Amino acid sequence: NINGYEFELIDLPGSYSLTPTTLEEKIVRKFIMETPPDVLINIVDARNLYRSLGLTLQLAQSGIPMVVAVNMMDEARRLGIKIDIRALSEHLGVPVAPIIARTGEGLGHLTNTLIKMVKGELKQRPPQISCPIPLQEAVQSIAHEIKQIQPSSRLNEVFVAERLLDDLEPVKISNRGNGQDAQLQEKVKQARLKIEKNLGMSIPTACAQCRFNSVKGLMLETTTAAVTASDEVTKKLDSVFLHKYLGIPIFLGIIFILFQGIYALGTPLQDLIGNGFAALQDFLRVSTIFQTMPDFLSRMIIDGVIEGVGVVIAFFPIIALFFIFMSLIEDSGYMARAAFLLDHLMHVIGLDGKAFINVLLGYGCNVPAVMGTRILSSQHNRIITMLVIPFTLCSARLQVFLFVSGILFAPTVAPWIIFGFYLFSFLMVILIGLFLKKVHFAGEPEPFIMEIPPYRLPTVKTVALRAWEEMKAFLNRASTMIVLGVIAVWLLTNLPPGATTGIGQTWAVQIGKAVKPIFHPLGIEWQQIIALLFGFIAKEIVIGSLAIVYAGDPVRQIAAQVTPLQGISFMVFT
To answer: What positions does the entry give for GTP binding (predicted)?
Structure first.
């Protein structure tokens, strides 16, 4: 809600052109052509306007109200780049707003401009783009035909005519079914053949040349750049971080230091929260309200919900530190370089660096990572990536590993265990991907083009916001799924009424022993089996389940009853 106006914000995939060559660009083109929005916000990078303005020129011709947001103005100033915003706006024919998204600078001006565009207080005109005369004549002729077929279209007919000519996929113009659309498509086809013969090049190439010649002129008119030392610093850092032989060991070293830091800083806070929940349980046991409550209900709340959820919440500092450190790595510009480093390994299994981005997302959460494979352009890439993502060590599994390794291994050994599991996880991704490539999905990986961002110092605000979003999701799961899970586990370990866990009368013991032959190769006991079974529903429930089945003092109980080998076996299967 902005100044009394309600907006539905639709974030389209990143795109360089409306002449589609990738799945993302096809999605953007389809959306613009079929469901034109009330207003467009075109975000461009102040550090590299040349790359961004080709798409901006296309969008400015569409006739859809648009505001251009020039982002990262602080980075541009740091690089010695000066942009004449007023001149840029005049040449593009649309309002231009300079912003710094990560600090919020300029966002007020952007939203005010947006409101004025919606109210019709600001006018825009299509930019002038010089093109060869045969192409201009064909565009004008087809635009006239479009005006006759669809006189009330929200899209500029010249824009639609250019899309018809430079897009190989047909664009539907009319729904009337009177044959006019088919006639127009035939006229476009004939015009395309004639123009390509006259120009000696494809129409998409000719249109792209026109746009980027215009962009070059825009750059000369609106920007100046000074030589700075930052490029030299970036080159020196990249010579180390992207080194052919040292790059990957440095990456692994950074990840290992990350886990050392998590354990060193998080363990004292974890103990503090754990002791707090233990004190809360002791207080509630002697409180009047729980003394008068039915015994079964009070035990379920204190020994079930509070015990289980308390153990999970005690890991809040460790998980928070994980996301904070990951945000620092990402915002510094290093994570993009990690994708570049590991692109070669992805090629070994028939994937590319773009697929690695999805695999990397899997180390946060498998679900959005699998959903994100839709952006991969080839089917074999999508299938292989979807099948290897479940082998990544997601943050929910990480919670289990931190819990188990923290109990069974010394503080100096536990980080090595976690680090080893990450290596094992990535090795499994490579091996499974290689198997799938050789046996089922042979094919050549596609070329991978990726923008390497400059090194930058992450801001406290940005890191805190990103970490908080992740932690908010964790707390939401803890307040719903984990609570329900630990209640279910507690009921299984305390029913039927009067049953005793120690002599195998409870439902949990009976279920665990019934399926134990299946899990026999793992060498684990029924308590871990129950936790694993609930882990199939959600990995977040595993820790709470362990806290319930090892009742009393779960940390001491697990340390006394579970061997390190059983712990490793349990974590591998998790």
So the answer is: 11-14, 71-74
